[in-house]
Design a protein that fits this description.
The protein is α/β, with parallel strands linked by helices. It is built from 13 helices and twelve strands. Helix 2 crosses helix 3, helix 4 packs parallel to helix 6 and helix 6 packs parallel to helix 8. The model has no long low-confidence stretch (mean pLDDT about 90).
Length: about 325
């Protein structure tokens, strides 16, 4: 297309027989070395024999297992309730992925999401989470509980040309109304390739889904991005919420964030609520909804479904 591109390469090298005496082991070793080359700044090479840190090797091995885990369907979607301040009723849930390894139990997102981002596996993984989240939410809505589900969107997903088609297909296949789905992005995600981000979010809004700014307040230019991006909800970051009872600065930031969002006609969710004191503060200052361990950690879909059927209320 008459455009000049500059392409770099990261190379991982395994040597027979020191790094493996069969094809599978050699490829695995080379793959681990390639990830190490990426971690060291990309556009370089790394021998597997040069890997010295046991922790690094373990992490790289986890990345290799990640490939196999997607094919083996070892990932599960858990749901954490979002609670209305005024009534304590559930208004929806945030979908959070968990890796149930057959050989080593539950692996939390902080351990594998960065690897999934680096390798590009976040795209098929995110697609599965989106599909399952829409399916579950549609099922709960069919039994008469008008709940919404929010799903995190990575930068790789957001900047793919087929992101709108992927979301549309998930909605159509599940039968979930578009207004019952909210896609969560962080400011760091939004900042990358802004023109592409704005176009994608505008198309998603036209589809009818909600857009939530996650971790609000932690970026360098939250206010300017809040003005530019077509969001309808902001989530106040847990780092501020946890300090509202002990740090006057955190309390001031949270009060201001709630007031600002309401002036802009945005819904406000506070995440990371862990104490009654925090919930009281947020209620007094008219935060709309709360999420956190005070109510429940993320739970499997079956358990969350029981709460839906019983129309569970949480004490606020």
């Amino acid at each position: 297309a008459e455009r000049e591109l500059y392409v770099t390469v990261s190379i991982g090298i395994a040597v027979f027989p020191e790094d493996g005496d069969d094809v599978d082991t050699l490829v695995k070793s080379a793959d681990a070395a390639m990830y190490a080359a990426k971690q060291q700044g990309r556009d370089g090479y790394q021998f597997h024999s040069g890997l010295r840190s046991h922790g690094d090797i373990e992490r790289l091995d986890l990345g290799n297992r990640l490939h196999r885990a997607i094919d083996a369907k070892e990932f599960r979607v858990y749901f954490q309730p979002v609670v209305r301040v005024e009534t304590g009723t559930m208004t929806g849930a945030e979908a959070l992925v968990r890796w149930e390894r057959a050989d080593n139990g539950l692996v939390l997102p902080g351990e594998f999401i960065p690897l999934a981002e680096d390798s590009g596996l976040i795209v098929p993984l995110g697609m599965e989470v989106l599909r399952e989240s829409c399916r579950q939410a549609a099922e709960w809505n069919r039994i008469g509980r008008p709940l919404s589900v929010s799903v995190n969107l990575s930068v790789r997903q957001l900047q793919r040309r087929d992101v709108v088609g992927t979301v549309r297909t998930a909605l159509e296949d599940s039968g979930l109304e578009a207004r019952r789905l909210s896609l969560e992005i962080t400011e760091s995600v939004a900042m990358q390739n802004l023109d592409v981000t704005l176009a994608a979010l505008a198309d998603l809004r036209r589809l009818g889904v909600g857009i939530t700014m996650d971790d609000f307040g932690t970026g360098y230019s939250s206010l300017s991005y809040l003005k530019m991006l077509p969001v309808d909800t902001v989530k106040i970051d847990r780092s501020f919420v946890q300090g509202v009872g002990t740090d006057p600065n955190d309390a001031t930031i949270v009060r201001a964030a709630i007031a600002l969002a309401h002036e802009l006609r945005l819904r406000v969710i506070a995440e990371g609520v862990e104490s009654a004191e925090q919930a009281d503060f947020l209620r007094v200052h008219q935060c709309d909804e709360l999420q956190g361990f005070l109510f429940s950690p993320a739970v499997p879909a079956a358990e969350f479904g029981e709460w839906v059927v019983s129309n569970r209320r949480f004490p606020v």
